[in-house]
Amino acid sequence: MRTVADDADAATARTTLGAIGGSVGATSTAIPVASGTGGATLAASTVLIFNNNQMSGQLLRPRTTGTTLATTDSGRLMTIPSGGGADAYTLPASPTAGTVFEFAVIGSDQLTIQAQGSQVIYIGGSASTAGGSAASSTQGSYLRIVYVATNQWHCLAAGTWTLA
């Protein structure tokens, strides 16, 4: 996924943000639309899902009871807001190779990613148990998880993640 931060320099980033009606360092809760006018207002617990370098227009509100992801959610970023309590996402039971999800820990609440059945989550040289999980409550932790082969989820991770 490409972000404004990937742009070659700050001037390009400012131009890019200006083109969508935003500004560098802006803290507004309004989503800019292409014309530069304000869009929907976000609540503090709202999470934006990004898909293919564009806001998909969909909002995901994490639930403390957990969310089961679908393969149609592939390519999206899931987060939980600070102070919202622990949350879990369950990976799809029958994903296809190349299914990918991204997770970011925004605050200090625990985010758990749960595999199903015989699926195993790999981070570096470590592996979860079959049907195990990856969890983090470290602010700034990030996980990109890709289904690469039968029952195998492989991760690119930053921060602290615990496999179980």
Overall description:
The chain has one helix and 15 strands, in the order H-E-E-E-E-E-E-E-E-E-E-E-E-E-E-E. The relative contact order is 0.13. Residues 1-64 have low confidence and may be disordered. Strand 1 (30-32) and strand 2 (38-41) form a beta hairpin. The protein starts with 9 loop residues before the first helix and ends with a strand. The strands form four sheets. A six-stranded mixed beta sheet has the order 6-8-13-14-10-11, with no helix packed on it. It is mainly β and 164 residues long. The longest helix has 10 residues, at 10-19. It has two domains: 1-41, no CATH class; 44-163, Jelly Rolls (Sandwich).
Fill in the CATH topology of the largest domain: Jelly Rolls
Q: What's the helix-strand series? A: HEEEEEEEEEEEEEEE
CATH class of the largest domain: Mainly Beta
Q: Name the strands of the widest sheet in spatial order.
A: 6-8-13-14-10-11
Low-confidence stretches: 1-64
Chain oligomer state: single chain
Average the pLDDT over all residues and give the rounded result: 72
What is the structural class? mainly beta
In which range does the helix fraction lie? under 10%
Distance between the termini: 28 Å
Strand percentage: 35-45%
* Beta-strand segment tally: 15
DSSP helical segment count: 1
Biggest sheet details: 6 strands, mixed
What is the CA-based Rg, rounded?
Answer: 17 Å
Write a short abstract of this structure.
The chain has 164 residues and is mainly beta. Helix content is 6%, strand content 40%.
